[in-house]
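protien #1 (seq + structre)
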Amino acid sequence: MKEIRHWLTRIPLELIFWIASIIAILTINPDAGHHFSLCPLDSLGFDWCPGCGLGRSMNLLARGDFQASWSMHPLAMLAFGVIFHRIWTLIKNLKTTHYYG
């Protein structure tokens, strides 16, 4: 049990989360009428939310459709920048703390 706990503490869960989120964003179909959402405002029936559309906008930006991405949510490029910066920082910290190359 102690070895399993030690092994689990070495897994960079935040890094896995951010990489999985980028993969999930890239698999979104932005043209779909209804999509899966974790938004609490959407679940309560509100039509507007400041964060809704960000994932679809990031997907459009990754496909190169800049105008549609901007019109859907203008913060997509900033969100990509923040996520990639965080992934880079976590990998850099992982390399220094675990002595990987």
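ok now protien #2
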Amino acid sequence: MVNGKRLLVIIPALNEAGSIADVVREVRGELPGVDVLVVDDGSTDRTSAVAAAAGARVARLPYNLGVGGAMRLGYRYAYEHDYDVAVQIDADGQHDPRYVPKLVDLLDDYDLVIGARFAGEGEYAVRGPRRWAMGMLSMVLSGLSGTTLTDTTSGFRAGNRRMIEMFAQWYPAEYLGDTVETLVHTARRGYRIQQVPVAMRRRMAGTPSHSPAKAMVYLGRALAVLTLALIRR
């Protein structure tokens, strides 16, 4: 329980055996009494076994569906087990679970709360095409939602029962669908969105896959995803 609400932390994971145990233990230590569900998205390493040994409930997909497919399963689990709140946390340790109560506090007034990296807390920064893409996405989605959103691609989010029910039935599996398209869909249907400043940490294991070439690809894909999300009904 957090702030009187029954809460499920959903962690989508693909080949995160190097970090998932520490992430699960930290969540359970900082948020005692909260349930943790690791959705193993078709890993080829020991992610499932390591997560279970650390105390998480584990749902294992037979093959890789992408973050959107894993999150849809997580929200369906939250809906079928009647949780009040679902919180998304990445498996690489960059999201600090000590911020979770701040996100949950706002769910009394909002449906979806985003942990925002560029809202004045911490030193996380991006440059070049990735920054341009994130700035463009934030400008468009802020206008659509009627509030200032500085980090629309953050995977650190909390949703109330209304969000759990919607995401259990509808959650896009395409590239950036778990971030950009979900926000477009949520805002268009009149759900209330807000953000909370959070500091982002370094990965506990592995290396980021960013490079100038990949950043340009990211910019192009982000533009395409946003256009398709705005066209779809």
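The first helix runs from residue 20 to 30.
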